[in-house]
Amino acid sequence: MDLIVAKFGGTSVGDGARIKKAAQSVVNEYMKGNQIVVVVSAVNKTTDELIGLSTDAIGAGLTDKQKAEIMAMGELTSARLFSATIESLGVKSEFIDPYNKLWPIMTDSNPLEAKIDFKTTNEKAEGIRELLNQGIVPVICGFLGKGPSGEITTLGRGGSDITAFLIGHCLDVSEVIIVTDVEGVMSTDPNKIEEAELLPEITVEELRDLATHGAQVLHPHALTYKDPLISAKIINFEHGNLSAKGTRIVGPFEGDSLKSVTIYKNPISLIAIVGDGMLKRSGLLAKVTSCLADNNINIFGISAGQNSMTVFVEKTESNKAYHLLHHLVIEDEFFSSLSLGEDASMITIVSPNFADETPGIISNITEPLRKNKINIIEISSSQTAIVLYVDIKDGEKALDLLNEVLE
């Protein structure tokens, strides 16, 4: 017997026919002898409509507590509909919302971005296990929590997926299945490139980075809750079959990289190439990277400006890279000159939540370096990482200062 959590997104319960199809897929799995916990989102667009109605009616006077209670109505309704549909197909079911004594997801009192009380949630989840052992299919509201005084709270972005992964962890399930409106994770957006292919599997880290950069499959925050020992997959509701293949999510979430600062063990050298109007010349970047790649020289970073390009390589390969690029400068009319800079330390700051941080995250990181007279040679950033290059003599001091910032 397998224990499964199946989470159904808003589109997969978008109308009566879809709710029945989803419920039938649960019943089919139940009839195989498996135990199933259902986590369900609000019917598609319901939450947005509720927010719109309350904003039009109340405006700025709407409190966060009121907003959470109003937003919750979508999940409260869909859980009742889903549970009733399962029972209409001949299987016992019970909807579980924050008003139910068996409700498992306990949080602090923040109405709209509640923090989960993991210890209490883990204890309360045993009540769900008792239902399962009685042959009942629990249907749990996604996205919602219960605060210390019994008030409804919400888990923020990716809330229903958080619920599914969290319940999966607490009950030590065999598999978490995310049922949504896509086949799984594609090689790229199929709406933009028709040749996009379905990936049979993807790591948590890869999916988190994709989601951080705009892929709409799962919210990156939800992936931090995935238990590395539990299987997970994403499938399309159209199949009406929880055994559909979809895309499997593999590997652990690297908790240590949630927010970390590391310094590369070896010195890094900077090679600057200049030329008039380089940024407007197509193919120059490819020439530089191909030149080094053809000679097995790894590039740790590269930056480009209007009239210059800087390449970062390990010091042990810098002299070879310098001579190779000099030949390229001599041969190409758009390059003028190049120089080999001083040795630098490369420091990488990683966080999956940089995209969600308040404005000023870069200044928060660079300000302590400025105060300690540490010169930043180069800085680059993405939605998940910031890379700094400082003088080699300042590397360890900069590392200590940046660790203090994150703490």
UniProtKB/TrEMBL annotation:
<dbReference type="InterPro" id="IPR001341">
    <property type="entry name" value="Asp_kinase"/>
</dbReference>
<comment type="pathway">
    <text>Amino-acid biosynthesis; L-lysine biosynthesis via DAP pathway; (S)-tetrahydrodipicolinate from L-aspartate: step 1/4.</text>
</comment>
<dbReference type="InterPro" id="IPR005260">
    <property type="entry name" value="Asp_kin_monofn"/>
</dbReference>
<comment type="similarity">
    <text>Belongs to the aspartokinase family.</text>
</comment>
<dbReference type="Pfam" id="PF22468">
    <property type="entry name" value="ACT_9"/>
</dbReference>
<feature type="domain" description="ACT">
    <location>
        <begin position="273"/>
        <end position="345"/>
    </location>
</feature>
<protein>
    <recommendedName>
        <fullName>Aspartokinase</fullName>
        <ecNumber>2.7.2.4</ecNumber>
    </recommendedName>
</protein>
<keyword id="KW-0028">Amino-acid biosynthesis</keyword>
<feature type="domain" description="ACT">
    <location>
        <begin position="350"/>
        <end position="407"/>
    </location>
</feature>
<dbReference type="GO" id="GO:0005829">
    <property type="term" value="C:cytosol"/>
</dbReference>
<comment type="pathway">
    <text>Amino-acid biosynthesis; L-threonine biosynthesis; L-threonine from L-aspartate: step 1/5.</text>
</comment>
<dbReference type="InterPro" id="IPR002912">
    <property type="entry name" value="ACT_dom"/>
</dbReference>
<keyword id="KW-0418">Kinase</keyword>
<dbReference type="GO" id="GO:0009090">
    <property type="term" value="P:homoserine biosynthetic process"/>
</dbReference>
<dbReference type="GO" id="GO:0004072">
    <property type="term" value="F:aspartate kinase activity"/>
</dbReference>
<dbReference type="InterPro" id="IPR027795">
    <property type="entry name" value="CASTOR_ACT_dom"/>
</dbReference>
<dbReference type="Pfam" id="PF13840">
    <property type="entry name" value="ACT_7"/>
</dbReference>
<dbReference type="GO" id="GO:0005524">
    <property type="term" value="F:ATP binding"/>
</dbReference>
<keyword id="KW-0067">ATP-binding</keyword>
<dbReference type="InterPro" id="IPR018042">
    <property type="entry name" value="Aspartate_kinase_CS"/>
</dbReference>
<dbReference type="GO" id="GO:0009089">
    <property type="term" value="P:lysine biosynthetic process via diaminopimelate"/>
</dbReference>
<dbReference type="InterPro" id="IPR036393">
    <property type="entry name" value="AceGlu_kinase-like_sf"/>
</dbReference>
<dbReference type="InterPro" id="IPR054352">
    <property type="entry name" value="ACT_Aspartokinase"/>
</dbReference>
<dbReference type="GO" id="GO:0009088">
    <property type="term" value="P:threonine biosynthetic process"/>
</dbReference>
<keyword id="KW-0808">Transferase</keyword>
<dbReference type="InterPro" id="IPR045865">
    <property type="entry name" value="ACT-like_dom_sf"/>
</dbReference>
<dbReference type="InterPro" id="IPR001048">
    <property type="entry name" value="Asp/Glu/Uridylate_kinase"/>
</dbReference>
<keyword id="KW-0547">Nucleotide-binding</keyword>
<dbReference type="Pfam" id="PF00696">
    <property type="entry name" value="AA_kinase"/>
</dbReference>
